[in-house]
Design a protein that fits this description.
The protein is of the alpha/beta class. It has a domain at 68-109 and 233-447: Rossmann fold (3-Layer(aba) Sandwich), CATH 3.40.50.1100. 42% of the residues lie in helices and 16% in strands. The strands form four sheets. The chain has a seven-stranded mixed beta sheet, sandwiched between helices. It has a four-stranded parallel beta sheet with strand order 8-7-6-9, with helices on both faces. α6 links the parallel β6 (130-135) and β7 (154-160). It is globular, with a radius of gyration of 20 Å.
Length: 453
């Protein structure tokens, strides 16, 4: 029988996270205080995050130990299998081997618990009793709700309104795990009320939901904010994905020519890719590609500069590719990956030409997702289909060039509660939406008021 899965033992779960800041050829620009414009100090972040996570955010150590209680929770689903997509290979009929890291094995169905678990743990250790967060399609809100329940914390989730209405089952998952889920913008915060006064029918955005969650955290007793993407410590926790994948490739004596992942805020793309970026920095020939939606083309069309992570400008100014903190995705956009900015680490890597970025419209991503489901069986999350569309493009390129290629991508979650989006695609209700050029010009104007990089 041909090998389909490469499996690690439980005791082979990585015991340390990898911090790429130790290996960057050029250092990243620092985040700036939203009030003073000066580099952020640890004490500036103390009302928002516990100090043990702030230390990870600013760390330049290459390896950071994973606490034993976090490893015990990881062991519920980790290590995840490295799988060979042989049926999809046959469909594409190209000289490629396609491997994927199946992060849909987690209890929440996505890669998000890789950071939700440690964030809940570190907050609990710091004496925090409640976490407040935002979520778009719901993967992050679900994961943090589960993690908070595991460590005895309360959880409050502000969910982007359009997703709250389109994806009720993720809200139900949060409720099952004991969390309170609130459609955003809401009347619960000053930031939400301000938006509703100006735009009563606002579909919401992650920028708005972040403002609400941060405000809720800093004004609450024994509460802190938790973020599922973008920041350094979040990407750090996700590197368990790529570290496991490297071990699995060693077991079969192979190494990928190209590593792919979908890119929204940057967490799952960074999780699969950063350990391979380390190899690239040290001379290994490997290409690394982030796939994003053409309706939210942060990496491929957004300007690079300082911008806020939220609409109300409560967060620090981050050096990143951005569509502007006032960006609101079109409601027609069904594929997830809706955040206006990109993780500073991922942005820095693109700026330094250590990674590539491509965008795909939602018709080609859902087409790739349906083809995957009809060959490999698993129904991918709409976000994951962007990576699969990139796999299809890589396979076609290999076929045209007549070159064999080994492809690795992050299968970052299942789409079993995203079937309404698939239904919209299958019934012809989706369009090939591209972000208008005037939106890019608006983004440039938005960041022009901030310090230049």
């Amino acid at each position: 029988m041909e090998q389909v899965k490469v499996v690690l033992r439980d005791d082979e779960i990585p015991r340390r996270w990898y911090n790429i800041q130790a290996d960057l050829p050029t250092p990243m620009s620092p985040p700036l205080h939203p009030g003073t414009g000066q580099p952020v100090k640890p004490e500036d972040l103390a009302p928002v995050f516990p100090m043990n996570l702030i230390e990870q955010e600013a760390s330049s150590e290459r390896w950071i130990d994973i606490p034993e209680p976090v490893l015990q929770k990881y062991a519920l689903w980790r290590p995840t299998p490295l799988c060979r997509a042989r049926n999809f290979e046959k469909l594409l009929d190209a000289p490629v081997k396609i491997y994927y890291k199946n992060e849909g094995y987690s209890p929440a169905g996505s890669h998000k618990p890789n950071t939700a678990i440690p964030q809940a743990y570190y907050n609990k250790e710091f004496g925090i009793k409640r976490l407040s967060t935002e979520t778009g399609a719901g993967q992050w809100g679900s994961a943090l709700s589960m993690a908070c329940q595991m460590f005895g914390l309360e959880c409050r989730v502000f969910m982007v309104r359009v997703s709250y209405e389109q994806k009720p089952y993720r809200r139900m998952m949060m409720n099952v795990w004991g969390a309170e889920c609130i459609p955003s913008p809401s009347v619960r915060t000053a930031a939400g009320r301000k938006v509703l006064e100006e735009h009563p029918d606002s579909p919401g955005s992650l920028g708005i939901a972040i403002s609400e969650a941060v405000e809720d955290a800093v004004t609450g007793k024994d509460a802190r904010y938790s973020l599922g993407s973008v920041l350094n410590h979040v990407l750090l926790h996700q590197t368990v994905i790529g570290l496991e994948a490297k071990k699995q490739f060693e077991k079969i004596g192979e190494y990928p020519d190209v590593v792919l992942g979908c890119a929204g805020g940057g967490s799952n793309f960074a999780g699969i890719s950063l350990p391979f970026v380390m190899d690239r920095i040290h001379g290994k020939q490997v290409r690394i590609v982030g796939a994003e939606p053409s309706s939210c083309p942060t990496l491929t069309r957004g300007p690079f500069g300082y911008d806020h992570g939220d609409l109300a400008c409560m967060t620090p100014l981050l050096p990143m590719y951005t569509l502007g903190h006032d960006f609101v995705p079109a409601p027609i956009h069904a594929g997830g990956l809706r955040y206006h900015g990109m993780a500073p680490i991922v942005s820095h890597l693109l700026k330094e030409n250590l990674i590539e970025a491509r965008s795909y419209n939602q018709l080609e991503t859902f087409d790739a997702g349906v083809k995957w489901a009809r060959t490999e069986g698993f129904i991918p999350a709409p976000e994951t289909t962007h990576a699969i569309a990139a796999v299809v493009e890589e396979a076609q390129r290999a076929k045209e060039e007549g070159k064999e290629r080994t492809i690795l991508f992050n299968w970052s979650g299942h789409g079993l509660v995203d079937l309404a989006s698939y239904d919209a695609y299958l019934t012809g209700k989706l369009s090939q939406y591209e972000l208008p050029e005037e939106e890019i010009e608006r983004a440039k104007r938005t960041i022009s008021r901030y310090p230049r990089l």
